[in-house]
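Sharing a chain and its predicted structure for anyone who wants a worked example. Both blocks are below, sequence first, tokens second.
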Amino acid sequence: MIDLLPELARIPAGPFLMGYDEGETHQRPAHVITLDEFLIGACPVTNAEYARFVLATTRRSPGVWELPAVSPFAPGDRFRTLAAPYCWNGPEPPAGKTDHPVVLVTYEDATEYCRWLKHETGWPFRLPTEAESEKAARGGLEGQRYPWGDGLDPSNAAFLSDPSLKARTGTRAAKSFPPNGYGVFDAAGNVWTWVADWYRADYYTVSDPRNPRGPASGSLRLLRGGAWTNADERYLRCACRHAVPPDTYAYSIGFRVACAAQP
């Protein structure tokens, strides 16, 4: 079903510098990683795309459900208030947000979507690895903090420039900001995106130099990219690693798909 294929950006094979020597300990050392060519969603999965999955399966619609076991995003009254604009009415996405990234999805929700999309299209869709996510975010720029360079600019990404406005801001529609050099939109800001890897704080000291897949096991998964809720610019950096329990979900967490390059 070719109409289910998302818009994809082709990321070239070759080396890139992953990590940031001036960042947090788990972002160091900066090290050269070589990846095969791959495809990644040009945008995070949208509500419209996720709605097809919900309608075709018995998957629960995004909403505020049970508490995550351990999570910095554990729902309380404020969480429910901020999440309300993103909760679905049955299989229907929130009004006016069909072209916004889907949020309130767990790691399992994201992997099940990839599994369904793989079955429906015949393409080997999956979540990107942490290394793939960072290379795609960098857009071909070597050693820069953000997908567009070293300066933080609200014309390039959705982030919380004024924390007092959090209740009056939110996600932005796909392609609201310019793409990076690889044609990837929202490589920083708008929504955090799940990646496939387990988290290990010292993984950069032991990772494979070619096509790393992350540790074999763990208790935390990784988010990449930063979100509209972040006022701290460090979360928007290409090298930022944000570790959370896999059952975490929030109004700032979505995902994008990836797969091996197709002919």
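Comments welcome. The helical segments are 47-56, 77-83, 107-121, 130-138.
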